[in-house]
Amino acid sequence: APVRRSPDVRLGALLIVVSAVGFGAMAIFARAAYDGGGEVLAVVWMRFVLAAVVLHVVLRVRRRPLPRGRTLLALAALGGVGYVGQSMSYFSALTLAPAGIVALLLYLNPVFVTVLATATGRERWTRGRVVALSLATAGTALTVGPTAVAWDPRTALGMGLAVLAAVIYSFYIVLSERPTARAGALPSSTVVVTAAAVVLTVPALATGSALPTTTGSWLAVVAIAVVSTVVAIIAFFAGLRRLGPSSAATLSTLEPVVTVVLAAIVLAEAFTPLQVVGGALILVAAVLLVRSHPTTAP
After folding, report:
1. For residues 9 and 251, what is the distance between their CA atoms, to the nearest angstrom?
2. Cα(184)–Cα(253) distance, rounded to whole angstroms?
3. Angle at 212 between CA 208 and CA 215, to 5 degrees
4. Does residue 151 carry a pLDDT above 70?
5. What gap in Å lies between CA 181 and CA 178, rounded to an integer?
6. In terms of Cα–Cα distance, which of 249, 271, 248 is closest to 259?
7. 51 CB-contact burial (10 Å; exposed 0-12 / middle 13-18 / buried 19+)
8. Do the Cβ atoms of 232 and 23 come closer than 8 Å?
9. DSSP three-state, residue 59
10. pLDDT tens across 191-223, in order?
11. Would you put residue 111 in left (φ > 0), alpha (ψ -120 to 50) or beta?
C-alpha cells in the first residue's frame, strides 16, 4: 500500500523547498545588485540591515524575547564574526567565479562539519562518513578541475573564497548549536543578523562602499534581505519543526541545485559534463553526511 503523508509533513517539505529556493536565488540577486553598481561590502551590509529590521518586527509581533547574558554575547559574536566572515567570503566569491560553482563549493560545509565533529571527539568516524568524504573530495576535484586547467587567477581566487565561506560556515554551525538551542531559532537569528549589521556599519561607512544606483539593483538587495534571508530562515525553521533536522537538512541540498539552474537560465553559465558529475557527487556526499548528523541543521 502507498505511504500516506500527513498534511503537516507535506507542508513541512514545501516550506523547506521554499527556503532552499530563497537561499539558492541569493547568488542571482547578488549578481543583479553588482550589475547596478553595488559593491560587495555595501550589498552585504544592506542585506543585514534590512533583514534585521524585518526580523525585529516579526519577533515583536510574535512576542518573543531576545536572549540575555552569555547566550546573547555568544550569538552576537557568531553574527559579528562568523556570519560576517562567511557572507563577505561568499559574496566576494560571486564577483570572481561562476555562481553555480560557488554554490556547489559552499555546500562542502557538511564535510567540514564532520571533520570538526570527529576531530573534537564529539563523533566517531564511520564507514559511511569516510565514503561521503571521499565522494566530496572527488566531486570537488571534478568541479574545479576544468577551471584549474585553464588557470584563470580571478576564478581560482573566487573558488578559494567559496571554500573559505564553507569552512567558516562549518565553524558557525558547530559553535551555534548550544546558544541557538537555549535561545530558540527566531531570537537567535535576529541577534545574529543584527550583530552582523552593526559590525559592518563602520567599515561600510568608513570606506564609502558604493550602494546600488538603479531601481533594479535596489530591488535585488531587498530580495536578498527579505526573500533570501528572512523568508528563507523562517521557512526553514517552520519546516524543521514539522520534518525534523535530518529530513530538513537533506531537502535543503536543493539549494545549490536551484543556484545552478538559475545561473544557467539567467546568467547563461555553462557546466562541463565533468563538472556536472562533480556537483552531483558533492550533493550525494552532503546528503549522506547530513543524514549522519540527525541533531545538526544548517
Report:
1. 13
2. 23
3. 150
4. no
5. 5
6. 271
7. buried
8. yes
9. helix
10. 999 999 999 999 999 999 999 999 999 999 999
11. alpha
Q: CA triplet 13, 221, 177: central angle to 5 degrees?
A: 50
Q: Work out the burial of residue 266: count CB atoms within 10 Å of its CB; fewer than 13 is exposed, 13-18 middle, 19 or more buried.
A: middle
| Length of the chain as a residue count | 298
Band the pLDDT of 147: cuts 50, 70, 90.
low
Q: Which among 104, 50, 47, 79 is positioned nearest to 224, based on CA atoms? A: 47
Contact predicate 149/84, CB 8 Å: no
| Backbone phi and psi for residue 59, each to the nearest 5 degrees, phi listed first | -60, -40
Q: How far apart are the first and last CA of the chain?
A: 34
Residue 181 CB neighbours (<10 A): 12
Tell me how far apart the alpha carbons of residues 86 and 165 are, in angstroms, rounded to a whole number. Answer: 5
- When pLDDT is cut at 50, 70 and 90, the band that residue 237 belongs to is confident
Q: Which three cell numbers stand for residue 183?
A: 535561545
On the question of pLDDT at 4 being above 60, the answer is no
Distance CA 158, CA 210 (A): 21
Check residue 30 and report its DSSP letter: H
Alpha-carbon span 233 to 235, nearest angstrom: 6
Amino acid symbol at 159: M
Q: Which residue has the cell 534581505?
A: 225
Nearest to 20 by CA among 215, 289, 286: 286
Least confident window among 51-60, 93-102, 243-252: 243-252
C-alpha angle 276/278/280, rounded to 5°?
A: 70
State pTM to two decimals.
0.85
